[in-house]
Design goal:
With 200 residues, this protein is an alpha/beta fold. The protein contains six helices and nine strands; from the N terminus they run βαβαβααβαβββββα. It has a nine-stranded mixed beta sheet, sandwiched between helices.
């Protein structure tokens, strides 16, 4: 399976950590492309990925200049025929691409948090109805875009997980790739997604 990671981090150390965590959870090497790469969509299409993962970022999508910079990535989300998983900022990119508004929480959330699954989905196969996953964000989507189904929520974020109704586009506000031995739920979510794509 070919996985391509679209990197949204400015800091090389964050990029490296994200890629390492994704490789650990998927059990395979991934390719990386920077979000600022010219002709981003065309390059992704050429690479024929089985899955594209949009990473987190310290950028704030509520700023107009930031939205402008990330417009090519929002465009690719709307056009893509390949499966996409948006993680944290990547999830917000997906929501924004489909018209969902953003809200600033006024503080940075950085901890493991309980998230409740509100709709059964193969993404959560083998998991309890309340999962514990890593959070690291200060903004959130305030609603699920019309084209999407709401899958999970928490006390801090209403839209913790969502899936497009007719295309394989998934968004999670939390960081499933930051699983550890004490909190393995995120890794299981990534593996469930890979199973789904393989079976599609």
């Amino acid at each position: 399976m070919k996985i391509v990671v679209v990197n949204n981090y400015k800091e090389p150390s964050q990029t490296e950590k994200a890629v390492q965590n994704i490789e650990k959870c998927t059990g395979q090497s991934v390719e990386k492309i920077d979000c600022k790469e010219p002709e981003l969509y065309s390059k992704l299409v050429e690479s024929e990925p089985d899955l594209v993962i949009l990473t987190g970022s310290s950028a704030l999508l509520s700023k107009p200049r930031t939205r402008e910079l990330f417009q090519p990535e929002m465009d690719l989300v709307r056009k893509a025929k390949f499966p996409i998983l948006g993680i944290c900022y990547g999830h917000q990119i997906i929501g924004s691409a489909f018209g969902a508004p953003m809200r600033d929480l006024g503080q940075m959330l950085r901890r493991f948090e309980e998230v409740s699954i509100v709709r059964k989905h193969p993404l959560f196969d083998g998991l309890p109805s309340d999962i514990v996953v890593a959070e690291s964000h200060r903004q959130e989507l305030t609603k699920v875009p019309d084209e999407f189904q709401h899958l999970a929520q928490s006390k801090t974020s209403k839209v913790e997980a969502m899936v497009h109704r007719s295309r394989p586009i998934y968004g999670v506000q939390f960081h499933p790739e930051r699983s550890n031995d004490n909190h393995p739920h995120g890794k299981l979510i990534i593996q469930n997604l890979l199973k789904q794509i393989r079976g599609a």
